[in-house]
Amino acid sequence: LSQVPKRMAVVGGGIIGLELGSVWSRLGADVTIIEYLPSIGGTGMDGAVSAAFTKILQKQGLKFKLGTRVTSISKANASHQHQQHHTLELKSSSQDSADGGTTATL
Fold first, then answer.
1. Which of 19, 77, 79, 106 has CA 20 to 30 A from 45's CA?
2. CA angle, 49 then 95 then 64, to 5°
3. pLDDT by 10-residue block (mean), the chain, 106 residues
4. Which conformational region is residue 101 in: left (phi greater than 0), alpha (psi within -120 to 50 degrees), or beta?
5. What is the pTM of this model?
6. Distance of CA 94 to the CA centre of its chain
């Protein structure tokens, strides 16, 4: 990327996704972490550590959509030069597969 994006979605709240999100947030991007599991850090992170780490990252400005699955991502060019918008279709993991997802532009 040639410049820091205004907004960014990171799909996956594992260690690598959290590190990427944290760095981009510190550079000025409005970051949302989307994680299928109900907590961050993956299956290997202790629940108490995950909860404490979530609070720390939220204080740093990161937003979280936990228990959420990305069902599709589409890209569309905006009218402004070098600007692109991505539309993500999200579905809460608690919904059954017959329910429709929620579409969010990030």
1. 106
2. 35
3. 91 96 97 95 94 97 93 70 65 57 60
4. beta
5. 0.78
6. 18
* 102, amino acid identity: T
Q: Could you tell me how many residues make up the chain? A: 106
Angle, in degrees to the nearest 10, between helices 47-59 and 15-26:
20
Instruction: Judge whether 18 and 26 are in contact, CB under 8 Å.
Output: no
What tokens appear for 51 in the block?
Answer: 């909860």
Give the β-pairing of 7-11 and 30-35.
parallel
Cβ count near 68 (within 10 Å):
26
- What single letter denotes the amino acid at residue 43? T
